[in-house]
Design brief:
The complex is a heterodimer of chains A (about 110) and B (about 110). Chain A has about 110 residues and is mostly beta strands. Chain A is built from no helices and eleven strands. Chain A is globular and about 45 Å long. Classes of the chains: A mainly beta (about 110), B mainly beta (about 110).
Chain lengths: ~110, ~110
Amino acid sequence: KQEVTQIPAALSVPEGENLVLNCSFTDSAIYNLQWFRQDPGKGLTSLLLIQSSQREQTSGRLNASLDKSSGRSTLYIAASQPGDSATYLCAVLETSGSRLTFGEGTQLTVNP
Amino acid sequence: GAGVSQSPSNKVTEKGKDVELRCDPISGHTALYWYRQRLGQGLEFLIYFQGNSAPDKSGLPSDRFSAERTGESVSTLTIQRTQQEDSAVYLCASSLRSLTQYFGPGTRLTVL
C-alpha cells in the first residue's frame, strides 16, 4: 500500500525567504506526482504535476523535483510571500491512474 | 471555463438519514474521483470513474457508501444510514485521463 509522508508538518518563515517542502513515498511505481495548495475552507488548487519520466517542473516561483527511484520529491518556493501561506499537499497517482494518495500536508505560514 | 462544481456546499443531517452529494465535472473530462477529508486528517480516496469502464470502488469505507456517474457527466455520492464518523468534507475531482486533477470546493457534511 502506497504511503506518502510530508516533512515538516508545519513551517513558519519570514517574507522573502526561500524554502523547501519535502515529500516521500514508499512505492516508486507511480504514474505522476502532483503538488497542491489548500486554503482554509476551500478546495485544492493544483500547482505542479510531474510525470514519472520527468525530473522537475517549474511554474513561476515554484520548482518541484522528482527522484522516483528514491521515492522523494521536493517543492521549492522562492522569495516567499504572505500570500503563499496555505497547506501544501503532495500526492502520487498510481500507475493504474485510479487514485491519488495524499500526504498529510505541510502548513506554511509566511510572516510579513 | 467553468471548474468542478459540487452541491450542496454544506449539509447537516441527523444520524441514520441518507444523503446525496452531487458533482459536476469539467466538461470533457473523462475521469472523475471522489475523496474524503476528515477534520485534521489527510485526503482519502473513495471511488474513481473512467469513461464507460467499471468504476474503482476500492476506497469506499463501507457498503453504506455508493456512487454513480451518468456517462461522462454528473456524479452522485450517496451515503445511507449516516453515522457521526461520516462527518467530513467530500471532494470531487475530474481530469482528462490521468492528467492533472481539478478539484471542486467540496461538500461539508455534518452528521449530528
